[in-house]
Structure formats: C-alpha cells, structure tokens
Design a protein that fits this description.
This protein is 21% helix and 24% strand. The chain has 143 residues and is of the alpha+beta class. The chain has a four-stranded mixed beta sheet, with helices on one face. Helix 1 packs across helix 2. The longest helix has 18 residues. The chain starts with 7 loop residues before the first strand and ends in a 5-residue tail after the last strand. InterPro entries: RusA-like_sf.
Length: 143
C-alpha cells in the first residue's frame, strides 16, 4: 500500500515567534514566552487539522521566515529557530515539568524530536507588522 502522508506543511502565524534563550523551559506555566508558544501551537494545530498532517518520524527540514518592520528584529536567528523547533516537536518527552496548562495543545507535534532536523533555514522579509511562516518538510534519508 502506498504511503499518502503529507511530506510538507507550511503555515502562517501572526506576531513574533517564541524564543529559546534560557535554561527555564518555554513550556513552564507562566513563562514570559507562554503567549507566543500558545499562538504557534494553535496555528500548527489548525494547519495539521486542515491537511491531515501526522508527525514525521524521519529526517526533516525546518524553514522560518520572519516578517518584521525594517530594523526591528527582536532576537537573533538561533534563538528564534530554537524556540520554534522546541514548540513543534513532541512535548511529551519534556517530563520534568507539568504541561497540563497547555490543555489539548500539549498533543500538537509536527515531528518527534529535534534530532530529526537535518536542515534549518531562516530569512527575514520587510513588513509593517510582525508575523512569520513555518515550513516543516521531510528530507530524504541519508541527508
């Protein structure tokens, strides 16, 4: 039987992405990134439901496009990519903190683990308001 799973998912998110800049988990209740984390999870959930997406088990690529007013970037590329990738992986492995405050969003995962990432890309585009686009896609084994 042929595998009909979607191999790429692209979606838009309003506002700024979550950033990963400290040892404290961005999933901790009351974390200063909590609103950004929830916004990203809600957008990922909507895109996954719309397309029938299931988490990718193999090697992946993550692309992040940040749209922002010229000269108003708020963080560096590595902290932006780190935050987005942490949120989109399976959160059930973050067992050292409680995740009940995320409700059904705790189950939103576009892939299993960051170790699957074989390619990352980031670029910025000028815009009046902050927003971003995320693309997660499968890459061939061996990359």
């Amino acid at each position: 039987m042929q595998d009909t799973r979607a191999l790429a998912l692209t979606f838009e998110v309003s506002g700024l992405p979550p950033v990963k800049t400290e040892a404290l988990s961005i999933f901790a209740a009351g974390h200063r990134q909590a609103t950004r984390v929830r916004t990203l999870l809600q957008a990922a959930l909507a895109a996954a439901q719309r397309t029938g997406w299931t988490p990718l088990p193999g090697p992946i690529e993550v692309d992040l496009v940040l749209r922002c007013p010229p000269g108003h970037r708020t963080s560096d590329a590595s902290t932006l990519l780190g935050g987005v990738c942490a949120v989109l992986q399976d959160k059930k492995r973050v067992s050292t903190i409680g995740l009940a405050h995320l409700g059904v969003l705790v189950d939103v995962a576009l892939y299993d683990d960051d170790r699957q990432i074989r390619r990352l890309s980031y670029h910025e585009e000028p815009a009046e308001d902050f927003s971003y686009q995320v693309r997660v896609s499968a890459v061939p084994d061996g990359v």
